[in-house]
Amino acid sequence: MSTIDEATQQAVINLCLSIADDKLFLGHRNSNWTGIAPILEADIAFSSLAQDDIAHASALYELAGNLMDETADNIAFGRKPDAYLCSNIVTKDDQFDWANAIARQFYCSNFDLLRFERLSNSSWSELAALCKRLVVEQQIQVNHINDWVKQLATGTPESKERITNALNEYADAASSMFETPYGFDLLIEQDVVNVTEDIFDAWQARIAEQLSLVDISVDFENTASENEGGRSGVHSDDFADSLTELQAVYKEDPAASW
Amino acid sequence: MSASANVEVKVKDGSGEDPEKLAAFEAHVQAGGLIEPNDWMPEDYRSLMLRMAEHHANSEIVGALPEGEWITRAPNLKRKLALTAKVQDEVGHGQMLYEVAQDLGKSRNAMLRDLITGKTKYHNCFNYPCPTWADICMIAWLIDGAAILNQGTLAHGSFGPYIRTMRRINMEEAFHFKHGEDMVLTLMSGTEHQKKMAQDAFDRWWGPSIAFFGPHDRPDELERPAMKWRMKTATNDELRQKFVNRFAPAAMATGLVINVCEKDEHGMVTKATPDPLLKLDEETGNWGFTQPDWDEFYRVIRGNGPCNDERVALRRFSYEQGEWVRNAILNGQTTSQN
Amino acid sequence: MITNPRIKPPIVTDELNTQEVHAFPVWEVFTKKKETDAHTHAGSLSAPNAQMAANFAREHYGQDQVCCSMWIGLRDDFKSTDACEDTYELFVQWNAGDRHVHVGQANASSREDAETKCKTEFVGDKEFYTIWSLPHQAMHAIDGDEDMIWRTTDQSYRLAKGYSKIVRQKWDAIRASKEVDDYQKEDLKDTF
């Protein structure tokens, strides 16, 4: 990607924002467990994962911000609801149920690792360099969360039922991750996104591999292509609630810096 | 935000012990010697140390709650990360302190259950409300500033595991405090709305900050076990004066006014007037100040503060919601080894 | 939308009806800040098994400050007196109040043997307080080079030094603007 026309630039921005928004809202929801998770040690660990997600979002906002001539904070906090491009799964209310939190993070972490792996070969060198670095951090998250799924699935009959239900409960929302932002085809043409395999199939294979270890199977249906959802700025009520909280102080005094 | 164990507890002074052993122990400790878990110690030292660590741990995990409420509302990326990390640190401090207490003979579960059923206490200052973002800024600056002063002295105590934990905690408190200072300075160099928010929050937190160090010293303070056995190395009043000497001029330099406040039952300020005693005594170098409202202090400590019920209820919610998870991973161990 | 329990927790005052879970075993965690340092005791934690202990250790003791390597061992494995032929990792606490620091390894037939070797090979006639030893096979290691511990993403938000410069600048600006205000006050007095 040596020269960049306006349409490609917008598509690149959309790509960065779609990943960053996923990470921001996932971290936003999960950071809300800090201080009240089921075990002190798990509380600390889950908070680290949430911080990683928000830190990754920051890095991606900065990259997009260079093209948009805007600060990462204003991009993260200052857009209208329909300008956010996150998928529905990241804001789906977890009802303070640990199984929900783990199931969601399990789906999202594994998907993010795949995304970062794929973008490590991007023709846009800045994005490739960033993603190469983030792959390593993302791998920790994947190992950690895969282990949680295993622990809950092999714990007690109750925990197996709870994690199985949660994995099913979030299965539909998981397909929203595979929606693509506007201009994505253009990015494939220009090798900004390298497509060697279908990312849904690859993700499903990794999820199935983990779940087969603990004798759980979940059916996924990729309905992304039929949907005009989060990636197109069409959001759920849960998203609206999350955004209201996210912007609560930011909007209190528009002239202020905090 | 960390807190001390500067509460009044009825303690025994080791009078049931072998007088020779006790005398040697006291001489060792008073000469600056340290005690490790396997060393001989009076039973009363053990139980007082346990209670001190337990109270401190309780304060950390309850202290995580008022700030935790604001994580999702933090106004920019760096603040959001920092507040999450700060609350996470507090949980970490609680975890480390529960380990210290547990090694002195009480299980973590028993401690968590005693906390949520009201059998044990946590630091009083966490029973006050946090209605605005500016409260988060003031807690990090004032309460963590007070905690650093206090824990700095606790790190010179006599019990090895506790002082090692204090040193580690203080390193993280330095981040909490600087982050608080940064936020207060940001507000005080910001818009009129931000300055007003800051002043209102300062009015809510100045009182609890100077009450943070606990009640007035007793006349026999230095003879009481906590001081005699060097669990504490500074008295409450000494620390309070040190705090005022540091923070009163700094607050005024930012443009904040130090007020004496009356509050309603929700902890909201109904009347604020500039502290008439606030002036520097050139001779001693000490700042004069109006004492905190001690009636209010004891009312809140007895459970009748603005937020006592909510704090305990949220800890209980967390404990009960988490039961199935703790049971699960206890059983999940054999199949999950990688 | 459900009421956020974080803001408005349900107030329950009846008896606790949950059963107490058996306590998880305690693990000792050692961290190393840079390659040339020795592993030093960072603290302990409770976890049901080695994998979770390692996960928890990485995200707690591994994130407080820069960390390039961690060792985790079950506390009971530092105590067992069963004869066990192994290479032992040896840790010395030189004075009361100190943290245990890794001093080296010894091939030994039992803990007693290992600690004797520790004294002859690593302590000599120096004074020390206590020795810990852990059979190497019971130790769980995380090597940060292969399995990241301290993150590469900017961590300055969680360190005091990440704030010192900006705080100094803000103090300078506040003081300067106060001086300007005072200056202008005088200005006005003189003029009017």
Describe the protein:
Chain A contains ten helices and no strands. Chain A is mainly alpha-helical. Chain A has one domain (6-247): Ferritin, core subunit, four-helix bundle (Ferritin), CATH 1.20.1260. The longest helix of chain A has 29 residues, at 40-68. Mean pLDDT of chain B is 93; it is low at 1-5 and 334-338. Chain B has one domain (19-310): Ferritin, core subunit, four-helix bundle (Ferritin). Chain B is built from 13 helices and four strands. A two-stranded antiparallel ribbon of chain B has the order 1-2. Chain C is built from three helices and seven strands. Chain C has a four-stranded antiparallel β-sheet, with helices on one face. The longest helix of chain C has 31 residues, at 161-191. Chain C is extended, with a radius of gyration of 26 Å. Chains in contact: A-B, A-C, B-C. At the B-C interface, α3, α4, α6, α11 and α12 of B face β2, α1 and α3 of C.
Question: What keyword list fits this structure?
Answer:
heterotrimer; A: 258 residues; Ferritin; 63% helix; B: 338 residues; mainly alpha; two-stranded antiparallel sheet; 61% helix; disordered N terminus; disordered C terminus
Count the strands of chain B? 4
Low-confidence segments of chain C, ≥5 residues, pLDDT <50? Answer: none
CATH class of chain B: Mainly Alpha
- The amount of beta strand of chain B, in percent, is under 5%
Q: Give me the number of helical elements of chain C.
A: 3
Shape of chain B: globular
The count of domains of chain B is 1
Annotated CATH topology of chain B: Ferritin
User: What distance separates the N and C termini of chain C?
Assistant: 61 Å
Work out the helicity level of chain B: 55-70%
Query: How many strand elements of chain C?
Result: 7
**What is the domain total for the residues of chain C?**
2
What share of the residues of chain C lie within helices?
A: 25-40%
Give the overall shape of chain C, derived from the CA principal axes.
extended
Q: Sheet with the most strands of chain B?
A: 2 strands, antiparallel
Low-pLDDT parts of chain B are 1-5, 334-338
Q: Helix tally of chain B?
A: 13
Produce the secondary structure layout:
The complex is a heterotrimer of chains A (258), B (338) and C (192).
Chain A: H1 6-31, H2 40-68, H3 72-77, H4 98-119, H5 125-153, H6 157-169, H7 171-175, H8 184-189, H9 199-213, H10 237-247
Helix pairs in contact in A: 1-2, 2-5, 4-5, 4-6, 4-9
Chain B: H1 19-30, H2 43-68, H3 77-103, H4 108-116, H5 133-154, H6 160-188, H7 192-211, H8 225-228, H9 236-254, E1 259-263, E2 269-274, E3 280-281, E4 286-287, H10 294-304, H11 308-321, H12 323-331, H13 333-336
Antiparallel strand pairs in B: 1-2, 3-4
Helix pairs in contact in B: 2-3, 2-11, 3-6, 4-11, 5-6, 5-7, 5-9
Chain C: E1 26-32, E2 40-46, H1 50-60, E3 69-74, E4 86-93, E5 101-108, H2 111-123, E6 130-135, E7 139-143, H3 161-191
Antiparallel strand pairs in C: 1-2, 1-3, 3-7, 4-5, 4-6
